Amino acid sequence: MTEEESTSPSIEELHQAAARAQAAYDWEEAISLYTQALAQEGLPPETAYDLLDGRAEGHRHLGDLAAEEADLAAMAGLAQEMADPACQVLVMHRQVGGLVPRGQLAEARQMAETALSRSRELGDQVLEAASLATLADALNRSGELARGRECAEWALALYRDRGDPAGEARSLWLLGFAAIRLGERDLGLACDEGALVLYRRLGDREGEGNALNSMGIDATDHARQRAYYEEAQAAFGAIRHRQRQTMVYNNLGLVYHRLGLYGRSRDYCQRAVGLAREMGARLALAYHLDSLGRAYLRLSPEQPDALEQATRLFEEGRALCQEIGDRYAEATYWLGLGWVALVGGQPAEARDLFQRAAEL
User: Fold this and answer.
1) Residue closest to 167 by CA, chosen among 188, 141, 212, 137
2) Which of 273, 225, 228 is nearest to 249 (CA)?
3) pTM above 0.90, yes or no
4) Is residue 26 packed enough to be buried (19+ CB in 10 Å), middle (13-18) or exposed (0-12)?
């Protein structure tokens, strides 16, 4: 053994150091340490799997979606090599979570359906509950809210049966997400509040931020909305979760838009759009472009190029929504383009664009 080899940290030491950095939300340091450990030769597949798992979590928080995708694909290969069917299903859950922000909604739904089928074949109720929650999330994001609601209810029943508060909290949040959008406001609010209580009891800052963000969406008072979003931003900021922070920047921009503070709205929405572009988060970008376009539309009386900016943003968002397959979001962009035409003194063109939106 050379002197260099004798002083190099072992796999166990690197793994432990990476886990400490991860616990402190120092994602860059954690990723660096996991990468050093993965560079070692002769790693057992189980060890490599665990190291990739930690590194993928770091990439997820920092919003490096391509790097997360690569690590999850490697984990899927190792799960096959280990011939561990439960592990294979768990990786599929993680992959669904990566497909959604990239806007690959059809692939996410298909993979979530496969994970549920496999968990039921295994007769593992813990896996089945997690698979139902994963499918509920994919369905909700795809606009299939009635079925998403149903899957969230099944997951909730299984988690409560097993006394699993973390699973119960996630299922409540997913159920609330669907219920609010289906017009069941009282149920949605109750679910979000119940999820928040459980997440805070568990010390889960990501879950807490998700519940607070949902409560901001549910709130009808602008001051309360802003307060919920700012609390959510603090929770996500504490764990340095850039993906979720991006979402809250957009939502704060919408609050300021409703308050008539269009310049401030533009600033928050620009930040959200910039981060979504940087991360390659196509689903988030598909929504945030509309928010920024609306801010520019309102600024058009005082900013000479605002209508041109709004048109560019609405056109980009419309094309992106067509690629993703989100017809509801696409309709909002046709509406935006219609408003641009109306403000620009082209009522006939505006009418045609509004009609396109109505047909979706």
Assistant:
1) 137
2) 273
3) yes
4) middle
Q: In a structure prediction context, what are the per-residue pLDDT tens digits for the chain, which is 360 residues long? A: 444 444 678 999 999 999 999 999 999 999 999 999 999 999 999 999 999 999 999 999 999 999 999 999 999 999 999 999 999 999 999 999 999 999 999 999 999 999 999 999 999 999 999 999 999 999 999 989 999 999 999 999 999 999 999 999 999 999 999 999 999 999 999 999 999 999 999 999 999 999 999 999 999 899 999 999 999 999 999 999 999 999 999 999 999 999 999 999 999 999 999 999 999 999 999 999 999 999 999 999 888 899 999 999 999 999 999 999 888 899 999 999 999 999 999 999 999 999 999 998
Residue 356 corresponds to which tokens in the numbers above?
Answer: 């396109």
What are the φ and ψ backbone dihedral angles of 10, each rounded to 5 degrees? Answer: -80, 170
| CB-based contact 40:15 (threshold 8 Å) | no
Residues 326 and 123: their CA atoms lie apart, in Å, by 34
User: For the residues of 287-298, what is the DSSP string, one character each?
Assistant: HHHHHHHHHHHH
10: left (phi over 0), alpha (psi -120 to 50) or beta: beta
Written as one string, the DSSP assignment of 230-258 is HHHHHHHHHTT-HHHHHHHHHHHHHHHHH
